[in-house]
Amino acid sequence: MRKVMLVDDEYMLLRGLKRLIDWSALGLEIVTTEQNPLLAIKYLQTNPIDILISDMNMPEMGGPEFVTKAKQLQPQLELIVISGYSDFDYVHAGLKQNAVNYLRKPIDTDELLETLQGAIARLEARQESDHNASLAVQTQSRTLLTSDDVIRQARMSEVLGLQFTEAKPVRLIGVLNPLPPRDLVNYLKVLAAIKGFYVEGQDFIIIFQGTAEQLNVFINEAPHQIGAERRPFLVGAPVKHLTELAQRYQQLRQEIARQYFFETAAGLRVMLPETQQQSTQVLPSYSEVKGMIDNLSVVDFSTWLTTQLEDMKAANASDSYARQFALVVLLVLSDHLTAFNDKTATIAAINRSQDMSALKTTLLRIANLAKQTGVPQFSRNVAAMRQLVQKRFAEPLTLGIVAAELHLNAVYLGQQFKQEVGRSFSQYLNDYRVNVAVDLLRRSDQDVGQIAELVGYQNSSYFFKLFKLQTGMSPGEYRKAGTMDV
Fold first, then answer.
1. Locate the HTH araC/xylS-type domain: which residues (predicted)?
2. Alpha-carbon span 223 to 292, nearest angstrom
3. Domain 380-485 carries which CATH code?
4. What's residue 10's pLDDT?
């Protein structure tokens, strides 16, 4: 429904106008009536109106002055002026402010209907034109930031009027899931510093060029319901040249993903330029995590996990860093399980977790399974086999070799091991080797091929396959993801 405002100092006229026609049949809703034009101006400062019907003879403020101020506040609204004066010159000022028509008291029903239908037609035409223009700007903005064609980028930059200067730096700004989005669109359209924007999923990517003062105005004067108090506002570092746009865009996307993952409710975040000093944090190793959580109850583990994730959030860790940390925790927890048939599915759940809560839920489920299993009690034979693996995992161990050293039947020993450990001997050996490889990837600079040999694999391809099965990524990807820049 389009919003209509009626302004007249005569109460009976306002009452009669409301009853004169079926407003809803025209798709119109009278949202407010006002007898005092001063109060009407105050209302228009914060409330959008589509059609304003106003008397031109009011004691508190002259009609021409009122419609002029109304148009200044909301240039797109349609004006209909009413007057009991036969002298057209008095209302001419109102018509010069683009009033759609002049209605004389007493108002004729047919004339009112015709006038309103004309106003609605102009609103629809303007809306379609604005929509098409907005789509064009969105397409140009998206092309500028996502295209790898330098010529196209340069052309779009020129079309949008971007100039890379120190006085008015270009920045990329992200506003996450603004509700309602229309309010943000309307706000962006009236700011000269907004060179372009587009919607990516539920988020707005904005191309801003202006001074620090203009940036503060943009942030502080945004409609309250979509401002930084209600939504995360992400302000990118200045872009000094067109060639930096793609990099800044990727940084903004990564930050958007981080905000969603750590479930940030609202707030302003100004992203730092790369030239600023950065600190680096490295993922804890398998053995370090094992030392931290091996003897924790499920409740204590939950507290520990929450603290770890909150510390990452405070340190501006990426969402991928948090997932890699979770995979290390999973490796430690799974070592306590004698039956873990959905390890691959659990790894997938960690890698696709959309937020911190989902990640915690997955790990707590595994922690509960590990606690229910309790501390496993192994027979002398199985304990000896586990000790052999821990001491000689780098050697070409097989069940046959171990059985021969223990002077036992290999078939019997394999069955006993699987019954007590929940995995075959070869599975246990591979799991242990991958856990050691995780530590080496964190602690050493050796290449992946050397690490594969150190943990007992002469065939690097086989090691790659096993590592990805265990952790959900290749050794190289795991090493790269293990460092967090803050």
1. 383-481
2. 47
3. 1.10.10.60
4. 86
The answer to whether residue 67 scores a pLDDT higher than 50 is: yes
Q: What is the pLDDT of residue 86?
A: 56
Going edge to edge, which strands form the sheet with 267-270? Answer: 194-200, 203-209, 170-175, 232-235, 267-270
* Residue corresponding to tokens 């009690």: 377
CB 172 within 8 A of CB 116: no
Nearest to 334 by CA among 463, 441, 430, 457: 430
Structural domain boundaries in the chain = 2-107, 152-270, 280-373, 380-485
Does the domain formed by 2-107 have CATH 3.30.70.260?
A: no
* Residue 313 near residue 281, CB atoms below 8 Å: no
Pick the closest to residue 85 from 55, 59, 40 (CA basis): 55
Q: Using CA of residue 308, residue 310, residue 312, residue 318, what is the dihedral sign? A: positive
pTM of the full structure: 0.65
Give the integer Cα–Cα distance in Å for 34 and 54: 9
* pLDDT tens-digit map of 366-401: 999 888 876 677 899 999 999 999 899 999 899 999
Q: Enter the tokens of residue 356.
A: 């911190």
Q: In what order do the strands lie in the sheet with 78-83?
A: 28-34, 2-7, 51-55, 78-83, 99-104
Q: Please calculate the CA angle 309-312-314 and round it to the nearest 5 degrees.
A: 110
- What is the rounded distance in angstroms from the CA atom of residue 158 to the CA atom of residue 136? 14
- Helix 380-392 vs helix 425-443: angle between axes, to the nearest 10 degrees? 30
CATH number for the domain whose boundaries are 152-270: 3.30.70.240
